[in-house]
Amino acid sequence: MTAIHDSVPGTSGSRNPSAATGRRPSPGRRLSRPVRQRLAADVGLLVIVASFVLPLLWLLFASVDKQPGMTVNPPSSLTTDNFSAVLTDEITFTPMLNSLLLCGGATLMTVTAAALAAYPLSRYRARFARPYLLTILFTTCLPITAVMVPVYGLFVQTNLIDTMHGTSFFLATSQLPFAIWLMKNFMDGVPVALEEAAWTDGASWLQALVRVILPLMGPGFAVVTVYSFIMMWGNFFVPFMLLISPEQLPASVSIFTFFGNFGSIAYGELAAFSILYSTPVLLLYILISKRLGGGFTLGGAVKG
Amino acid sequence: MSTTGIASPVSKGRPGGGGTSPGDPRGKGTRALRWLPIAPATLLLLLFLAGPIAYCVYIAFTDMQLTGQASASFVGFDNFERAFGDAKFINAVVLTLIFTLISSILGQNTLGLTLAALMARASKTVRSVTGAVVISAWVLPEIVAGFLLYTFFNKEGTLNAVLGFLNLPSQNWLYTLPIVAVSFANVWRGTAFSMLVYSAALSEIPKEVTESAEVDGAGAWQRLWHITLPMIRRSIGTNLMLNTLQTLSVFGLIWAMTRGGPGGRSETLPIFMYDQAFNKSLIGYGTAVALLLLVVGALFSVVYLRLMREEV
Which residues are listed as membrane-spanning (chain B) (predicted)? Predict the structure, then answer.
């Protein structure tokens, strides 16, 4: 199709209906234009990418540098001291475990509630289904940041403040609207005929959901799970507001308490910890994007 | 209840005969019971989202303070009147507008579209590298991104080193132009989303359309303006709405970079709200600001819903 695309020079005045059938003019022209276009696009992209990559490079370099400054510089001498300095219970293991419990529990809640809710929304018709979905979509967009002050007030009054379960309930709820929306859209793509086979064999709706629909929307289910987890893992404001005891803080907040006083930061250690803390979500993202053949875009799920 | 209708098949491949299959468990039990699965999600949303929002509306009209919970009394619109007479609040509103304009509307949106358009033409290797780098910036936890960009914009950071190398004047960005620094930080972090949305949208434009425009002699800019942009206008609308809503609630990034300073010159509404509620212990006032933020968010959401109406 690129051959067709470039077979007709942009300056050609008359519309040629036979162009679509693949008329081929001189081969010289045909090759030069796409190559030039591609080179221009490549150069443009590389310039933009350079500005995106500099802060990331700093992170990589500083984490293995003995005396890192704030400027990107290849490390003068390589060291793993920064990593061994932060690999302690207090700095890395406890906060990471807290993050895992907090976000893992919340993801489990989100995904379960979303899958259950998506099933009737995808399979049955009811007058309230559309308003319900519209409300969900509306909630997806609300700035959660804005409700944190009242949530703090409510949590103080109900003794949920500074508890892991209270915080993970809230985290789960904050991701729930988008999870329901995504899950319902993915579920819509699973043909009802396959479920009917399960019903004929006497399966209940729950069995059909767990054994037939969820496996069939495999990548979709993984996307919802991983996306919810990534969003919670990186969330700073919610645990920052709702958790107080240092031993309960997840990595997103502990990084701040350990390194937040800019005066005397050990940049190498900060970088090393940042890498440790970021790796799980980067790996998870690679996992889902690979599983969907690299073509995965949340854009597809939210496109207008 | 009569609101629930007969189960409607979603698939197109349903066998000819109407009605439910013999083994269809949906035929059993009452129709209302079928909707039971939405209960857990609904309960969570009511308790942890609708509840706080209702509570938010209530506290915004009281003088609740962090210390004296019992003494909270109804004060009507005092908190709001106070806000509109408060120079620091007005400052926060202006900064939020600047932040949204630079980072969401100009930055993420335009850069995301540019990246998507270039990626459609670039070679495979460059395309993959671009995707990996830009998406990494997006997937990184917010607070890590904050630290990275703090060092990047710092007086002794990478940006000044690059400017020095190019013989351009350097600046103490976080001190002279903090709001611009945090806006660019948000562009760095958020552009991947727009890039993904626009990549999906551009891939859906049929090749024949652009080709026939080219045949008719339309130049690159004309094609962009008259063909591409109109064809992806719904994606543009969606993307602008979602970007703006995300930008309105940015807290961690700014908090890690400047904490709203220096002197409140990067104090957007979320930071202002937090500062009033917790550092100044004025929960009532802080919540009133939160409510305003929520209302602005809700208005944007309604516009977004109108754009998405046909999807539901």
Answer: 35-61, 89-120, 132-153, 173-198, 240-258, 282-305
Number of domains within chain B: 2
From chain A, the residues in CB contact with B53 under 8 A are 142, 147, 150
Name the residue of chain B whose CA is nearest to A281's CA: B139
Same-domain pairing of B142 and B75? no
pLDDT by residue (tens digit) across A151-203? 988 898 888 899 999 999 999 999 999 999 888 888 888 888 888 888 888 88
B11 in a domain, yes or no? no
Contact between B284 and A182 (Cβ < 8 Å): no
Beta bridge partners of A65: A78
- Residues A42, B123: C-beta atoms closer than 8 Å: yes
- Give residues with Cβ within 8 angstroms of B71, minimum separation 6: B63, B65
Q: CB–CB of A19 and B135 under 8 A?
A: no
Summarize the confidence of residues B111-122 as an average pLDDT.
90
pLDDT tens digit sequence for B245-254 = 889 889 999 9
Please name the member of B121, B197, B215 whose beta carbon is closest to the beta carbon of A302: B197
Three-class SS of A134-173: HHHHHHHHCCHHHHHHHHHHHHHHCCCCCCHHHHHHHHHH
Contact A191 B7 (CB under 8 A): no
> B205 and B231 in one domain?
yes
**By C-alpha distance, which of B179, B174, B173, B176 is closest to B91?**
B179
Please check whether residues A174 and A274 belong to one and the same domain: yes
Look up tokens 């103490």; give the residue. Answer: B172
Q: Is A39 exposed, middle or buried (0-12, 13-18, 19+ CB in 10 A)?
A: middle
The whole-model pTM stands at: 0.82
Residues A208 and A261 in one domain: yes
CB-based contact (8 Å) between A175 and chain B?
A: no
Token pair in block for residue A286: 């690679």
Residue of A244, A99, A41, A132 lying closest to B141 (CA atoms): A99
Q: Is the pLDDT of residue B275 over 70?
A: yes
B127 and B212 part of one domain: yes
Q: Do B59 and A300 touch (CB under 8 A)?
A: no
In which domain, by residue range, is A289 found?
A: 86-302
A246: preceding bond cis by omega (within 30 degrees):
no
Contact list in B for residue A281 (CB cut-off 8 A) is 139-141
Does a structural domain hold residue B38? no
Q: Please list, residue by residue across A61-97, b when 16 or more beta carbons sit within 10 angstroms of its beta carbon and e when fewer do.
A: bbbbbeebbbbbbebeeebeebbebbeeeebbebbbe
Q: Which residues of B touch A127 (CB under 8 A)?
A: 3, 5
Query: What three-state secondary structure class fits B268?
Result: coil
Nearest to A42 among B120, B122, B154 (CB): B122
Which residue in the set B136, B197, B248 is minimally distant from A143, CB to CB?
B248
Domain, as residue range, for B80: 50-85+282-312
Distance (Å) from the C-alpha of residue B285 to the closest C-alpha of chain A?
Answer: 10
**Which amino acid, residue A268?**
G
Beta bridge partners, B4, equal A126
